[in-house]
Amino acid sequence: MTGAGAPFLPYGRQNIGEAEIAAVTDVLRSDFLTQGDRVPAFEAAICAAVDAPFCVAVNSATSALHMACLALGLGPGRLMWTSPNSFVASANAARMCGADVDFVDIDPATANLSVDALADRLAAAEQDGRLPDVVMVVHFAGEPCDMPGIAALAGRYGFRIIEDASHAMGARVGSRRIGACDYSDITVFSFHPVKIVTTAEGGAATTRDADLAARLERLRSHGITRDPRSMTQAPEGPWVYEQIELGYNYRMTDIQAALGVVQMTRLEAFLTARHALADRYDALLEDLPVTSLTRRGGNRSALHLYVIRVAAAERSRLFAHFRDGGIGVQVHYIPIHTQPYYRALGFQPGQFPEAERHYAEAISLPLHPALRAEDQDRVVAVLREGLDA
Ligand SMILES: *Cc1c(COP(=O)(O)O)cnc(C)c1O
Questions:
Q1: Prior bond to 341 cis, omega within 30?
Q2: How many whole angstroms separate alpha carbon 323 and alpha carbon 9?
Q3: For 173-230, how does the pLDDT look when each residue is reduced to its tens digit (9 = 90+)?
Q4: Are strands 9-10 and 112-113 parallel, antiparallel or unpaired?
Q5: Strand pairing class (106-107; 112-113)
Q6: Is the dihedral of CA 38, 42, 44, 48 positive or negative?
Q7: pLDDT per residue over 234-293, tens digit each?
Q8: Ligand 1: does its nearest atom lie under 6 Å from the Cβ of 375?
Q9: Helix, strand, coil % (nearest 5) of the chain?
Q10: For position 1, what pLDDT does the model report?
Q11: How far apart are the CA of 86 and the centre of ligand 1, in A?
C-alpha cells in the first residue's frame, strides 16, 4: 500500500517561520492591534513587489473584489463578465453590488478565460446592445491570462478590467508584474493560507489610478474621509470626518499585516520552490495518461495550483483513491454558473462546455513550498497505482 501510515499531504499549506511569529508577537505587545503602522508597511511591500503606485489592504480578497466592482461603477442595471472556472467570490462581487453577471468560456490549455471566446461574445453583445461594463479576469492557478489581448478588446469595446489575481502574487506578464495594472484598472490578491503568501485572512487591491485608490480607501472604512479636500465643506475642527458614501468595515488588522510583511520578503523563494516542484511534477507525469495545464513561455506563473486532467470517467474514482492514500487532492473549480444560486438566476449546465469539461476531468495535486521530493514521489506513486499504469 502506497502511503499507509504516511502523513496526510494537503493540496496547499501556509509556510510560517519564526520571523512571522516574532512580527505578530511584536504587534500584540504594541499599542495598535489595528490602524497602526503595519498595514501601510504591508501595502508598501506589495507596491514594491508588484510595481504598483497604490495598494489598499483589506480583510479578504472577497472584500477587495466587492470594493473594486463598486469603484468601477457596478450597480443595478450594469453588467460584469467573468470566468466560470473560478471561486464563487469572483462572480459574487458583482452580485453584491446588484449588477448582472455573465460568463465567458475558458481556453482548456490554461483553464483561463479564452480571449477568442471573449472576442466572439463581445461582437455578438455589440449587436444585441448589451456590452459588459467590466470584465473580471482570473489568473487560474497563477498563470496569467492573455492580458495584452484582453486589454486590446477593452480598448475597442470600452469595458473596464479587474484582475482577480488571488492565485497570482508574483506572476508576470512578459517582464511586468501582475498587480502593476499595466492592462487593467484594479488587481486583487488573496492572502488566505493556501495562497502564495498569507495573512491568515486578507486581501488587497492595487491600481495606478489615484482617484480609484482614494475611492477604495474610503469604501474600506465606512465611506468616510478625513481629507479636507474630499469634504463637502471646510471642517470646523481636526476631529471632523465626513461620510461621503456608503462603505464597509473591510479593514485588515496590524496583526495580519505584520504576518504579511514578513511573508512578502519570502515571495521570490516561495515562487522558486513552487516552480522547481512543478517542473518535477511535469517530468514525473510525462509517461502517464494525464494532461497538465500549459504554462505559457514568456510569462511567469505563480503556480498556486498544479492541476492535472484525467479521463472524466476515472476522475471520481481517482479522487477517492488519492484521499484513501492520504493525498489531499482538490478540484478547482465547480463551474460557477452551475451553482444553485446562479441556476436560480437562469444559468444552466451546458452553457460553458470547456469549463464544464475541465471541471469533470480536473484534480489539483499537492503543491506548496515545503512539499518535499519524497512527498511528490508518493503523490505520483498513488496516481500510478490508481491509473493502474
Ligand atoms: C481565494 C479566492 C478568492 C477569495 O479570497 P478570500 O481572500 O478568501 O476572500 C477569490 N477568487 C479566487 C480566484 C480565489 O482563489
A1: no
A2: 9
A3: 999 999 999 999 999 999 999 999 999 999 999 999 999 999 999 999 999 999 999 9
A4: unpaired
A5: antiparallel
A6: positive
A7: 999 999 999 999 999 999 999 999 999 999 999 999 999 999 999 999 999 999 999 999
A8: no
A9: 40, 15, 40
A10: 47
A11: 9
Return the residue matching grid coordinates 470646523.
236
What's the length of the chain? 389
Residue 58 near ligand 1, beta carbon < 6 Å:
no
Q: Is the CB of 163 under 6 A from ligand 1?
A: no
Q: Is 103 helix (H, G, I), strand (E, B) or coil?
A: strand
* Ligand 1 close to Cβ of residue 192 (< 6 A): yes
> 167 with 195: CB under 8 angstroms?
yes
φ and ψ at residue 146, rounded to 5 degrees: -75, 80
361 alpha carbon to ligand 1 midpoint, in Å? 22
Kindly state if the Cβ of 167 falls inside 6 Å of ligand 1.
yes
SS3 assignment for 130-151: CCCCEEEEECHHHCCCCHHHHH
Side-chain half-sphere exposure of 388, counting CA atoms within 13 A: 2
Mean pLDDT score of the chain: 97
Q: Which amino acid is at 17?
A: G
- Residue 114 is given by DSSP the state P
